[in-house]
TrEMBL record:
Its cofactor is heme. The chain crosses the membrane at residues 6-28. It is a peripheral membrane protein. The keyword Iron applies. The lineage of its organism: Eukaryota, Metazoa, Ecdysozoa, Arthropoda, Hexapoda. SUPFAM superfamilies: Cytochrome P450. This is Cytochrome P450. GO terms for molecular function: heme binding; iron ion binding; monooxygenase activity; oxidoreductase activity, acting on paired donors, with incorporation or reduction of molecular oxygen. Keywords: Endoplasmic reticulum, Heme, Iron, Membrane, Metal-binding, Microsome, Monooxygenase, Oxidoreductase, Transmembrane, Transmembrane helix. It is found in: Endoplasmic reticulum membrane; Microsome membrane. InterPro entries: Cyt_P450, Cyt_P450_E_grp-II, Cyt_P450_sf, Insect_CytP450_Detox. GO terms for cellular component: endoplasmic reticulum membrane.
Length: 380
């Protein structure tokens, strides 16, 4: 009797599962006819996974995936996947029409990932506009200029670090990516959190170990980011998060410890912490510059009241770290690699830097850096 009941339940479950798969198949087939119905050329998708199979299986990076789509659409006026190939279009969508393109596809669960949900990169709609109006003065040229000495100090440490390597002999090999990661860790920890990480001096520096842990790309972490960016509706189901629980807790501890010390013994470092304390206490950042970008909100325009405290405050420091650490380390590493492959470009770049320093002085300032046009071409 029990065996018969079990067999019956097994058959019912199998039929239900097969029915669900068939329904999902036809649902996706219907959804994947979007471009076909509109007469737009498109790359034929596979059932269930669409065009993302290789990305989901981590066979191709998202950047290579987009490049593949771009190449398949070459010669056509458009293809059924939005890819902007002209810098002028990118500039228009990111500046002039940014009020239309401000929302990103990524989604974070407010319950399981509050830091991810509340940071400027993820937040959407009116809350994003309110937060952006508060945060925008952080990135004015005046604020960047005042942070520049902090970056220069880290660069001086990098120079000493590389110079000290000569003591080990001319044949010593340097892992450039790790060296650049240490350098950017020192820069971000100084500018964003107001602390000296000393990653270049101490191989076991806490902030460097944390940064290394935060960006370890395991299979699960890679899959998690794929879901966050490309399948956001699945985020609540799988409890996927932009910041892990350990990462979020570390950010909270570091930020509030630094703010507590800074408020007890007021000091002006002109770093992100100073600006966040202003936001926390005053609700705005005092700035003499008029911040206005093509009709977008400025500091003088009224916005709905936005309380910047708790995780909302921590989230901005956290995204400052994640956006500035790995991206800059990777850019610098590839830049140095390409310079090593192209001695003539390296020579021309060195000549420009020497010439500017010869006319403007030995110390590189924010202003002299902007005079190095070829340097900007090389980095970009």
């Amino acid at each position: 009797m029990r065996m018969a009941l079990f067999d019956s339940l097994l058959v019912d479950a199998t039929v239900a599962l097969i029915s669900l798969i068939i329904l999902l198949y036809f649902y996706f087939e219907y959804k994947f006819t979007y471009w076909k119905k509109r007469g737009v050329p498109f790359v034929k998708p596979l059932p269930f996974v669409g065009n993302f199979k290789d990305v989901l299986l981590q066979r191709r990076s998202p950047s290579h995936f987009f490049e593949d789509i771009y190449k398949k659409g070459r010669g056509k006026s458009l293809i059924g996947f939005y890819i902007f190939g002209k810098p002028s279009i990118l500039k228009t969508s990111c500046l002039k029409d940014f009020n239309i393109f401000s929302d990103r596809h990524i989604e974070c669960d407010p319950k399981t990932d509050p830091l991810g949900h509340q940071n400027l990169f993820v937040i959407k709609g009116q809350p994003w506009k309110n937060l952006r109006a508060k945060i925008t003065p952080v990135f004015t040229s005046g604020k960047m200029r005042r942070m520049f000495p902090l970056i220069s100090d880290c660069a001086a440490n990098l120079k000493r670090y590389i110079h000290d390597l000569d003591d080990y002999g001319k044949e010593r090999h340097v892992e450039v990516k790790e060296t650049m990661a240490k350098f950017t860790t020192d820069v971000i920890s100084s500018c964003a959190f107001g602390i000296e990480a000393n990653s270049l001096k101490d191989p076991d520096a806490e902030f460097r170990n944390f940064g290394r842990l935060a960006f370890v790309l395991s299979f699960r972490r890679a899959f998690e980011f794929t879901v966050l960016f490309f399948l956001p509706k699945l985020v609540p189901l799988g409890r996927f998060s932009f910041f892990s629980a350990a990462t979020a807790e570390y950010f909270r501890k570091v930020l509030w410890d630094v703010i507590k010390v800074r408020e007890k013994t007021p000091s002006r470092r002109n770093d992100l912490i100073d600006l966040l304390i202003q936001l926390k206490n005053k609700g705005f950042i005092q700035d003499d510059e008029v911040v206005k970008m093509n009709g977008e909100l400025s500091k003088d325009e009224r916005t709905e009241k936005l309380e910047l405290s708790g995780d909302t405050l921590v989230a901005q420091a956290a995204v400052f770290f994640t956006a500035g650490f790995e991206t800059n380390a990777t850019t610098l590493s590839f830049c140095l690699y390409e310079l090593a492959l192209s001695p003539e470009i390296q020579t021309r770049l060195r000549r420009e830097i020497v010439d500017v320093m010869h006319t403007q002085g030995e110390d590189i300032t924010y202003e002299t850096l902007h005079q190095m046009k070829y340097l900007h071409m090389v980095v970009s």
